[in-house]
Amino acid sequence: MTTSNERMTKGLPMRSRAARVAGLLVLAAAFGPTSLAQAGPRNQAAQTASGGRALSDLLTTARSEKLSPDEIKLRVKQLGSRAIPSALDVIDAGCFHQILPGNGRVVHRLEGSCREGLLLGLGAHPWQLLKGEVLRRLKSDPARQRRSTALEVFGAALPEGELITLLDALTDLPPADRRALRSPLAEAIHGVCSRAPLAYGEVRELYSSVSPAFAASVIQGVRMGDDGHSFECLTSLIGVFPDADPVLLMEVADLAKTVTRPVSGAALRPLRAALESPVRSVSVEAVKALGRADDVLAIPGLIRQLRSSHAPMVREARAALERLSAERFGTDADAWATWHAGALRWLDGTAPQLLGELKRGDTHRTNRALLQLARYRVFRHDLVEPVAALVAQAGNPSQDQVTQLACAVLGHFATDRSVPPLLRALDGASVETRKAALDALVRATGVNHGELAADWKAAGWQAQ
Q1: How many Cβ atoms from other residues are within 10 Å of residue 161's Cβ?
Q2: Are residues 60 and 90 in contact, defined by beta-carbon separation less than 8 angstroms?
């Protein structure tokens, strides 16, 4: 029987045993642990430690049969807690042995489904048992690789309420190892929060407790998650590490482009406070975020920033106000203040009367009310639902004119809640109404997926 080593050297012009050995070492360096174990006693000891015949057989089968991560998870779980030390050794080494007849061995890299399934399998074991084994290993050998493995396992297995446990992998960390563990920490935070969204509520405690050197890692880990949860979580971190706030606010401002609106007041309050930060980069990014997040309550603070001597601040404050209101008063703070005072009076006095007109069923008065409401786009999140109710009657021919104007107003409002009623209007309405709904959808979303609601839904837009 030809061994794997013999197969790899077959055909090579080697004339001596020494030359064959040298050739094997060259190949081992070139191919890495995917096909051949590297020479050296340290590596051999590591591979032996990563043993556990049952686990090796399981991973070999998983690799050859291309098992899914969930299938591997189930089989790892079936091995019981006795597999935990061996599994941790395999993750440390980054590879596992395929044991051949005659006790020969081929080393395969642990990657793809095998790695994911092994981590999932570890996470299926009782948490306290797994945590105890990981911490025991760290105590006996707090080397960088052990810490990285701990973070990876914790990311796959930590339950809600245990996020602070990530700090155990960073305790007494030599400064030289910090850079190498920044990415594993971010991945671990993302892993926990993606499995258990309530863990976002634990991030502030973790952020307050880590070394400032890892502040950016926490920010990155949160940023990798769901937009809505990430936005509120990141804004809650403002001010904890002032030196990290410029980076933090840049991420928040970028995330504000895609976050679902309206945004909760809890997420926006720290941003309003950041408007007054003495650090210009922080206050400028706060202005960007508030404008993109449609925070109407921030308008007085944005108007104040128009009086700043800092040109980038004035530019961004103007852009935010124009985005919020669709008005154009340039950098004239007094003109913006006068408009805002009038808009608030309209909201308290005239708006309720106009909303009442929408319910009367009089086409002329309803259309006039819609045009008046459209002028105050700044309050679109308060007005979108009553207008959307008019679009819901898209199947009634006698109301086609009202429905088409309501579609146009929803497109002008361009809120996340404008989209579902417009998608529904694409189905079963008159040709004119379908065209009005499509035009409004394109205006509200900035994309065009055609006149069929099914195509919009296939692209990820929802009618619910």
Answers
A1: 12
A2: no
Q: Any idea what the Cα angle at residue 313 is, between residues 309 and 315, rounded to 5°?
A: 105
Residues with Cβ < 8 Å from 109, sequence gap 6 or more? 32, 33, 34, 94, 95
Structural domains present in the chain: 4-123 (no CATH), 142-169+179-225 (no CATH), 233-331 (1.25.10.10), 349-458 (1.25.10.10)
- Average pLDDT score, the chain: 87
Mean pLDDT across 406-420:
93
pLDDT at 5: 39
pLDDT single digits (tens) 103-129: 788 999 999 999 999 999 999 999 999
Query: For residue 404, what are its two tokens?
Result: 């088409």
| Rounded Cα distance, 403 and 388, in Å | 9
pTM of the model: 0.80
Q: How high is the pLDDT of residue 53?
A: 85
Inter-helix orientation angle 280-292/265-274, to 10°: 150
Do the Cβ atoms of 425 and 409 come closer than 8 Å?
A: no
Distance CA 424, CA 440 (A): 12
Print the SS3 string covering 12-58: CCCCCHHHHHHHHHHHHHHHHHHCCCCCCHHHHHHHHHCCCHHHHHH
